[in-house]
Amino acid sequence: MTTRITRIAVHDLRFPTSKSLAGSDAMNAAPDYSATYVVLHTDSPDDLQGHGLTFTIGRGNEICVKAAESLSGLVKGLTLEEITADMGAFWRRLTAGDSQLRWLGPEKGVIHLATAAIVNAVWDLWAKSAGKPVWKLLVDMTPEELVRCLDFSYVTDVLTPEEAIALLRKQSPGKARREAEMLDQGFPGYTTAPGWLGYSEEKMRRLAREAVAAGWSHVKQKVGADLEEDMRRARILREEIGWERSLMMDANQVWDVDQAIEAMRRLAVFEPMWIEEPTSPDDILGHARIRERISPIGVATGEHCHNRVMFKQMFQARAFDFCQLDAARLGGLNEVLIVLLMAAKFGVPVCPHGGGVGLCEYTQHISLFDYIAVAGSLENRVLEYVDHLHEHFIDPVIIRHGRYMPPSLPGYSAEMKRDTLSRYQYPDGPVWSDIEAG
Amino acid sequence: MTTRITRIAVHDLRFPTSKSLAGSDAMNAAPDYSATYVVLHTDSPDDLQGHGLTFTIGRGNEICVKAAESLSGLVKGLTLEEITADMGAFWRRLTAGDSQLRWLGPEKGVIHLATAAIVNAVWDLWAKSAGKPVWKLLVDMTPEELVRCLDFSYVTDVLTPEEAIALLRKQSPGKARREAEMLDQGFPGYTTAPGWLGYSEEKMRRLAREAVAAGWSHVKQKVGADLEEDMRRARILREEIGWERSLMMDANQVWDVDQAIEAMRRLAVFEPMWIEEPTSPDDILGHARIRERISPIGVATGEHCHNRVMFKQMFQARAFDFCQLDAARLGGLNEVLIVLLMAAKFGVPVCPHGGGVGLCEYTQHISLFDYIAVAGSLENRVLEYVDHLHEHFIDPVIIRHGRYMPPSLPGYSAEMKRDTLSRYQYPDGPVWSDIEAG
């Protein structure tokens, strides 16, 4: 009895978030949170489907949609069983098997974003077929089974399959205890709600108070548009959250290396736990230099770090203190898992990026698995939480007192409601035709 | 009197090169050399147009076309005069001005390839309007005028506008002499003609003899599919070209770091001048390690190095001996110029990538300008020449005795014949409908 992928539908979904300035930062003034959304239809008698997405911020989502359509020929007609028998080979086939498509990256930009949507949909399908949430599917694998899902090309100089198995084995003894702990207490999160640019002082104070009341111990602020303004807003946030809670800052890539160092020397008085994306996401050596110069403020980056080769070098160069991988910027869960393993080897905590539609739904699985089976520690781990658009998901994240509670429904949690798929379809869905009509 | 860009047409052009195995290497077994081809139409009374392209190898070219169409909204309606008054600002507007599109890179992959096609078309338009070939337009600029064309964001820690001006001024005295030298003797090239994978021994020997007879002093061989086979083919080539000529090798990214070191230790007996793309193009630190371990064989890479930030780190990490920038993988000529300036500062010779349709037409301008105004030296500089598809261009490259002769027609030389634009249009042009029909 096999499950064959018979048809792949790709949706262009966009949410008009630019109207509220939620999601506004120094680089991205007015994003419309969007998804290239893939549905794998199958021949299963109970209509099993795999849903997956990649995140963009509006214009250009149509290019990712086109790329996902071009890639889908590599997946259509395969059975779930042949994919999961050697998921590493499947991933390699998708990223390197068609050298003409590979040329467009390789493994970066639009083609890799589109790869993520498809790969994540395959994991959703697998987990649903297994009747488990993805984090649990992963936790229940043996080290050998897990490593078989991975493609180690270009990283064997720092991590071999044998080392990966050894890392996983080392954490095996505590897995059951940590799983029980997570089910009971959840995974610690942090919120960006009060920290977006473009909010009035009154709104910032209100949201900061609400965050404290809701139990958040970590709050993040956007910086980088104007340094005096950043200082003023940091002062407000410190007044509201106090000094016993942690304040993080996020510059969204607006600075050059020396500018970042200067800005953070002034912002240091507010004792930020980290500065996120201080400069170009490609600048491994630049991040290493910034880190050296602004210690003890940590350096965090990764949401735009496009593949395992870039992360490998971030680790090798000791370029960051917090690894903020993205569930859909990397080529889906397989590549995320490689990065988790390298992070464990180098002792760098992983705090995945959550600012986007569907990303929190994904990252909870990643951080749960990381804690239970790979890192085995919560030290310096906090999982970003962004509070909008969760209402569109069938199985949205559940936050209790600032912690993510483990999802229990089968799948990878990013399946959207049928109504959302039609209403937010761009450009023809009613939400957009209404905007068009003014 | 202004020239306004009134309409932007984007063509999907593909050439069925996979039939001949010309262009076949260890990573790219059967490429169909393709171009996302942009035409900027203007309101000029004499029908001035700007033509520009980016190179892909077949499937997926439709995604680049889509991206170029999405970007063209940022260019339509501008005048050539407002663009050239501050070309640095124009470039920044195209790469960072629309943050929603920027998200898809930033500055990498499909969106950056599409940027290159548009930017290169603007340079073609500018040069045609000025009545000069692009290399001469650049050579005739003052250092200040040239630097105004550039966006230094993310590289100011290694190169400021002031340093760039100083670098250019240093070479000013010899410019006229070097220009005359180039017009007389041309720029030295090398050929890959005998070295593609998939050729019989007889064909290799014949092409190698032809190369020697045609005056080529440097010949490149593809490697990486099978080491014994690479050894056998290198032996054949050395037999034909002798030891007084240079042999280069190109692995097209197929090896991991340690594999590359091992393979090159064996291939060292053939005394290759360089190994090109030994591993992932993103692996700056990996290239540095390979370079350290296989000296005196040089390391060459850059055709997939996606932006100035990556090149900056290649220079900082002393990761390569030859900088093989690509005229259309970087975001067009503006970003190429920044890399030329950094290369001059770090003393790394630039040998641009030519393996693709239209790339030789572009790179001759780059290397001529580099020699005349930036580097001022020919030492270790050779410009790749690939011998197919030139018949499609209005102003194809002219090779004399293994050297590129400077183009004299106004523009950037990548304008294709009208007949080619219709015949090779994918999928509807007659060349493709004939193939479709079998």
UniProtKB/TrEMBL annotation, chains A, B:
Q: Which EC numbers characterise this protein's activity in its record? A: 4.2.1.68
Query: Which reaction equation describes what this protein catalyses?
Result: L-fuconate = 2-dehydro-3-deoxy-L-fuconate + H2O
InterPro entries, A to Z: Enolase-like_C_sf (IPR036849), Enolase-like_N (IPR029017), Enolase_C-like (IPR029065), L-fuconate_dehydratase (IPR034610), Mandel_Rmase/mucon_lact_enz_CS (IPR018110), Mandelate_racemase_C (IPR013342), Mandelate_racemase_N_dom (IPR013341), RHMD-like (IPR046945)
The UniProt keyword set, sorted, is: Lyase, Magnesium, Metal-binding
Task: Supply one GO BP term.
Answer: amino acid catabolic process
Q: Which residues form the Mandelate racemase/muconate lactonizing enzyme C-terminal domain?
A: 201-297
Which superkingdom does the taxonomy of this entry point to? Bacteria
Cofactor annotation = Mg(2+)
Q: Which SUPFAM superfamilies does the record associate with it?
A: Enolase C-terminal domain-like (SSF51604), Enolase N-terminal domain-like (SSF54826)
Q: Which GO terms describe its molecular function?
A: L-fuconate dehydratase activity; magnesium ion binding
On whether Transcription regulation is a keyword of this UniProt record, the answer is: no
PANTHER family named among the record's database cross-references: ENOLASE SUPERFAMILY, MANDELATE RACEMASE, MITOCHONDRIAL ENOLASE SUPERFAMILY MEMBER 1
Give the protein name, as stated in the record: L-fuconate dehydratase
Q: What organism is this sequence from? A: Caballeronia ptereochthonis
